[in-house]
Design goal:
The protein is α+β, with helices and mostly antiparallel strands. It has one domain: Alpha-Beta Complex (Cathepsin B, Chain A). The protein has seven helices and six strands. The chain has helices spanning about 25-40, 50-55, 60-65, 65-85, 95-105, 120, 180-185; strands spanning about 90-95, 110-115, 140-145, 155-160, 170-175, 190-195. The chain has a six-stranded antiparallel sheet with strand order 1-6-2-3-4-5, sandwiched between helices. The longest helix is centred in the middle third of the chain and has 17 residues, at about 65-85. The chain is globular.
Length: about 200
């Protein structure tokens, strides 16, 4: 058998499901951890297990509790990620939601965005659960390109680390029509992530 007889698999040829960590206090970090794994996987660099302890730091309120904390974490960890072969970059922006969605979509999986949001603009009152006040949820979502089903084409997907516990709460789904209002309530701030060198 020669190499000509074999079709080399690309990362996008396989179905890889990244888990979403559920947290009401570190949504920004949990969404970021998901996005960084997803982008690294698309670039062919994700190696589960080797760097999981680094990404797991983002699931704590100390490292992932706000956009500022996540940005600081990325600055401190960028050298370590580069040493692991991750060519991930991060930039803070203040841009309208439709522009961010277009930017992520044009990246074909090599880009993602974490958007701080107002929980009650995306979810019904009381949906956060009896032990968590809706107002106490430090909410954010991630936007990436993915397949919601193995048989569908890639599309924009919204990653929600705290979708609530009432009803059919989804942590991965289509972008909510209410996202623009929820993002606007946080002054359109966002962190965008991308794999450097990809065009």
């Amino acid at each position: 058998m020669t190499r000509d007889d074999v079709v080399i698999q690309r990362p996008e040829d396989m179905r890889f499901l990244v888990p979403v960590f559920h947290t009401p206090t570190a949504c920004a970090g949990a969404a970021t951890a998901y996005l960084l794994r997803r982008i690294a996987y698309r670039a062919g660099a994700y190696a589960p297990g080797i760097q999981e302890h680094i990404f797991h730091e983002l699931n704590s309120a100390r490292e992932g509790g706000s956009i500022e904390r996540v940005q600081g974490w990325f600055s401190r960890r960028s050298t370590t990620m580069a040493e692991l072969g991750y060519r991930l970059q991060c930039r803070r922006v203040a841009a309208p939601t439709p522009e961010l969605l277009t930017w992520v979509k044009e990246g074909r999986g090599y880009r993602g965005a974490m958007l701080p949001t107002h929980y009650l603009k995306l979810h019904a009152p009381g949906s956060s659960g009896k032990d968590v006040s809706d107002e106490a949820v430090v909410h954010a979502v991630g936007i990436t390109m993915d397949r919601l089903d193995a048989k569908t084409d890639e599309q924009l997907v919204m990653i929600d680390p705290w979708p609530g516990v009432i009803g059919d709460a989804l942590d991965r789904g289509k972008v909510s029509p209410a996202l623009e209002a929820a993002h606007r309530a946080r002054n359109y701030h966002a962190l965008v992530y991308y794999w450097s060198g990809w065009s």
